[in-house]
Amino acid sequence: MRRIWILPMLLAAFLAASGCGGGGELRVSAAASLQASFTEYGGKFEEAEASFSFAGSDVLAAQIRSGARPDVYAAANTTLPDALYVEQLVEKPIRFASNELVLAKPANSRKITSLADIRRSGVRLAIGSPTVPVGSYTRTVLAKLLRSQREAIYANVRTEEPDVSGIVGKLTQGAVDAGFVYRTDVRATNGRLEEITLPSRLQPVVEYSVAVVRGTERPAEAKAFVYGLLSGDGRRALDGAGFQPPARTG
Prior knowledge:
Number of domains: 2
Shape: elongated
Structural class: alpha/beta
Low-confidence stretches: 1-22
Radius of gyration: 19 Å
Mean pLDDT: 91
Number of strands: 10
CATH architecture of the largest domain: 3-Layer(aba) Sandwich
CATH class of the largest domain: Alpha Beta
CATH superfamily of the largest domain: Periplasmic binding protein-like II
Number of helices: 10
Distance between the termini: 12 Å
Largest sheet: 5 strands, mixed
């Protein structure tokens, strides 16, 4: 735990010595599931004016590979930031939050009451596309089921969305009966959706990772934003949205 507190203090000393911070735009590319918490954090971030681009983590990573240069990249997994680090496109990533995958349904719907119900004929299911983290996590869950169960569920998939906000949208519009999203996404709907907790034996490890993008013209402010996710306004915004701390920060 000491590491989490020491890093911001070292950064503060660096900012004071270099005279950086306090103005300009900091561009942050972040997973769609971080929209509520990052927007709140951005409103309190004093080192720069934070602007955000929210989308599927895979789409944002592809943009960086194609030459886009945000200052900070935050993903809903550790795989994509680690790959960009190997490609020397970002600095060393830091784990900053964890989450849980759940089965969501429209509030007060009685059509779906358990995971077993999404195997029934006629159920309309939304999942993430294979390359976006929520879709990858979903497939990890389904791979642990019996083949017959898994095939019945896949037969009910009506849409594969490019990010978790697409799944939430289909659910709140009543276009589907259920969908796999993060627990924080259900919470952010303020009662419009309800969650069905997955058995612990099926639950994937859902961790979020963030990195400063190499070549940023605002390295000090970018680092300040990253470390604020570990303690400070960023951490408080994440906690308020229902995110949990990561298992480790390295």
